[in-house]
Amino acid sequence: MISLKPGVDKVPFDGKYLLPMDFKSVWEAMEECYKLGLSKNIGLSNFSCKKLNLLLATAKIPPAVNQVSLLASN
Questions:
Q1: What distance in Å separates the CA atoms of residue 51 and residue 4, rounded to the nearest whole number?
Q2: Among candidates 24, 20, 23, which has minimal Cα distance to 2?
Q3: According to DSSP H, which parts of 1-74 are helical?
Q4: Do the Cβ atoms of 49 and 73 come closer than 8 Å?
Q5: pTM (two decimals)
Q6: Signal sequence span per UniProt (predicted)?
Q7: What is the pLDDT along the chain (74 residues), one digit of tens a residue?
Q8: Could you report how far apart the first and last alpha carbons of the chain are, in Å?
Q9: Crossing angle, helix 23-35 and helix 49-56, to 10 degrees?
């Protein structure tokens, strides 16, 4: 997962503006929203076991759900 450097708002953008996603800081902000009553629950979507374990190592509030999309084969 990636994010963009602050201030980049034009599409398409150059690859030099890409940054790795800071999961820890994003989750801390989500926990703060939860504590302030701005959300009933916080969760994830399509996190691998590795990324989920990295998050759980520092999370004060565990995710309520990890929604995963699966494709059914015929």
A1: 20
A2: 20
A3: 23-35, 49-56
A4: no
A5: 0.74
A6: none
A7: 677 777 777 788 778 878 888 889 999 999 999 999 999 999 999 999 999 999 999 999 999 999 998 888 76
A8: 30
A9: 60
